[in-house]
Each structure stands twice: as C-alpha cells, then as structure tokens.
Please model this.
Amino acid sequence: MDALIEIDNLSKHFGELVAVDNVTFSVARGEVVGFLGPNGAGKSTTMKMVTGFLTPSAGKISVCGHSVADNPLAAKTAIGYLPEGAPAYPEMTPLGFLRFIADVRGMGASLREERIREVVSKVHLEGVLHQPIDTLSKGFKRRVGLAQAILHDPKVLILDEPTDGLDPNQKHEVRSLIQEMASDKAILLSTHILEEVDAVCTRAMIINKGRVVQDGTPAELQSRSKLHNAVTIRMAADKAASARNDLQTLNGVAGIQELTGSADQNGSVSFQVLASNGQSIINQVGVRMREKQWDVEEMHVEKARLDDVFRSLTSSDVSETTVSGGVS
Amino acid sequence: MKGTLSIFKREFGSYFATPVAYVFILVFLMLAGFFTFQLGSFWDRSEADLRPFFNFLPWLYLFLIPAISMRLWAEERKSGTIELLMTLPITMNQAVLGKFFAAWAFASLCLALTFPLWITVSYLGDPDHGVILASYVGGILMGGGFLAIGSCISAITKNQVIAFVISVVVCLMFILFGVSPVLGMFSSWAPEVVVDTLASFSFLTHFESITKGVVDARDILFFGSLIAFFMFANALILDHKKAV
Model:
C-alpha cells in the first residue's frame, strides 16, 4: 500500500492544553478513514495540522511524500480540504468562488471551466451558481465547500464533518460521492455520525483526549461491543428464569443480561444472551429453543452499535485504562 | 506572483460585490469636498491649487483607511475563510501582498475619483499641474503606509472594531510626530537627535514635502520601507498565530 498521508508522533499544545498527543497513523490510497471522537478530542486540530493551517508542536506530517513543514506548497497542492463549517467568501457566487479557487490552484481557463462543470454536476450546484453564497442554505454552502475541495481532483481529501447540516438525502449523496472517489484517493474525514462510518469508511479511528484509542475496520470496532451478536429474547416471565439458566450453559454464550423494566402487564420479559467474543450464537439459541419448545414472543440478533463502542472508549471513566498510545 | 495576482483579483472584486465600496467612495468624496471647500476655505484663498484638499487628506485618511484595512484579516479570521486561504497552495507573502495591494488599489481609486477637484482648479485658474500630480502620488504612498499599518493590526484580532480603533490610534501617532506641539513636548527634554528621529517617522513631514512638488527619493523610500516593514510584520504575525 502506498501511504499518501503519513503522520508521525504528532502533538499539538495550546498553552497547557494538550489537544493532540503523540498521534501516529497513515492513510493509504483507496482508504477512507473515519475520524471519530467527542467534541474537543483533537480531530479538527489534527486535520488543521495536516493541511498546514496549524504548525505542530512536535512530530512530522508528510502528504504524498512531501513534508508539510518543509515543502508546504507541494503538500497543499496535493490536498483538497473542506474545513469545519465549510467557510467560503459570503459575497461571492459559487461560480466566482470556484473560479477563484481554480485560479489560485493554477488551472488554465479551459481546464478550469471543464472542472467546474464537472464538480458542479457532481455536487448539484447548478441551480445556485449565480447566487451569493451568503444567501444559500446550509446544505448548499456545505456542497460549495465540497466542490472547492475536489475541484483539482486531489490525491488526498481531508473533510471535516462533510455531512454536518445536510438532510438525509443530501447526506446519502455526499456519501455516494465519497465512495465514488475513494478508489484512487486517500480520504480522511471526521464525523459525529457513527452510521456514516459504516456507510463509507474502510477504517475507523477513535480519538479521545488527543490520542488514538482505537484503529480498525468498522466491523472490528463493532466486535468490540459486548452486545455484538447478542440475542434478545422476549417470553413469558414464569418461563424466562429456567430458559435463562438453560441458555447460560450453551457453548459460546458469555452470559445473560436481564433487561430491567421490560416486563409488561401480559407477564412477558426480555433478556439478552450475550455472545462471547462476538461470535454468532443465534443458531445454537434457536436449536435449543425448538428442543425445549419455549413460547417465544420475540427474538432478534443485536447488531452491535458503534455508539456503544464509541461511548465505552471515550467516556472519561474508562478512557484512562483503554488508552494505549499511538497506533501504527 | 501568480498567487498574489489571484488573491488581488478576488479581493479587489469583493469590494464591489457589496454596497460597501460604493458607500465608502461616496463618504470619501463627500468628506473630501467638505474639507476642501468649507474647512479649507478653497474660495477665499483665491489661489488655483489643491493645498486645502491635500492638507486635510492625512486627517481624512486617519479614519477612512482603517475602515478599509480593519476587515482585511479580522474578517477572514472571524468567518473562518482564513483556514481556506492558508491551506491553498500559496505562500504567506503572496496572501499578505495580494490582499494589501487590493486594498491599496481600492484606496487609490477613491483618491483618483477626486479628479473633479483638479478639473475645477484648472478651469478656475492656472494651477501647477506638477505639484498636483506629485501630491496625488504622495497621497497614494501615504495611503499605502496607513493601509500597511492597518493590515498588520487587522491580523492580530478577529474583531474588526478593535482592529479599527487600534489602527486609528497607531496611525494618529504616525501623524502627530510631525505636528509641532507634539514635537515641542519632546524637544524640551529629549536630545535633538530623538526629536529629529521622531519627526522623520511622521507621515505629515514626508507627505508635506511631496505636496510641495518635490518627489524626493527619501520620501518614497520612507513610505516604501514602512510598507515593507509592516507587510513583513503582518506575515510574521499570521505565521505566529499558526504555531500558537
């Protein structure tokens, strides 16, 4: 794999505050890396350093082999960047704005118009090309920012919350766009929306208090949830106790978790059969159920939620023990 | 060079994308007329020159130039577009110069639009056109000096009001060094060399010598090096802010 973004022991201090703490990772061509973390975790700060807007306190960054510190112009040429909030000059029209960006990026007039036509149709800006950016809705502004970032077909795309403020349809469009472009680019995007990681990312990195606490495929992340592949069963309360004891002994079952407050006036309760190591246990559970002929009202497999993993990795009480420094 | 030009074109165009430029030009011309004809007693002097106008120009610039320069960097920082600008493949100097030259071109355009004054005196009498031309050149140079100071100060803050107020105060200092009561304050106790140095930093001293019709290399050098110094400081401040 050829790594287009390489980050080596990167740190950033703002006075006493350590915003980014010794982070090391790389992003290869074809990868879409989702940068996750609570507000203030250091996602944007890291991106700002990669794009050359902030100078790191320590560490090295190289983009397409160019050191951001020593050869910023070459690095910036290779990067397309959507800053947080998609800033753009409010008095300009999207067309004027894109022409300015093309001009700064050294495109000739014919290439410029061709590229503008292409990205405008990609992000659907046709209807608002001549309207001041000031007057556009949040969704359009975001798309103008996105158009600006992909205008020069960069090898490296850095997108800070690309779908923030978009409606579900627009989110879907932006995600398809990112997937379309992914094959020949290295893409680093930050997001709060965990479903987005599932939808577009080939790799997810969770960052907390300036450190990478988890780095892996979305599936790997999910498997860290203790609810992964758990089976939730709802049945009559009087039968439930014996069923729970029985299921406890099954191979691959890590334990049973009662769901408090799940009892209703019909006398049914729910409980969850937890899988050890996130393996699939629905088959064993189903077989046992038929053998014993329990009357089950409802039964389904829990899809591990990234939220749980995210919370367990980033909520303050556990983070100290899970933090293991940089990930290579 | 290419980068500077791109920034220049965008910046200069943006003045005219909103009513700001037109309002500014209107106010500038109205005040210029008021100072020249009312306060400067243009008619009573019965002399065909533009001295009344150019005498007041530094004071007009004192408030109007910071109004142009205050937004140069403060607005970029406030709206977040500075992040966009600084991550484009241009150098810091190109960005600083591009924005400065655009503001300077705009200020010079405003000054050039006072040409009816020149036409008026030509119609009424027989002015020394060389002196007037030199005065305009001096006005452009002085405007550049004020703008460079203002641009540098605008880079410090994201609040345009603060940028405006500080710029006015600093520009005022650069004017007052040439006013005799202020120099008198120093001459009573400070050595002559200090007083002379202070006076040599005054915009008034240099501007007035140009408006006499003598475009001296030293005056051009003064404004040129002052602009260069504040441009350099401007880039330095922006660089420093990246590292904080």
Confidence is low (pLDDT under 50) at residues 317-328 of chain A.
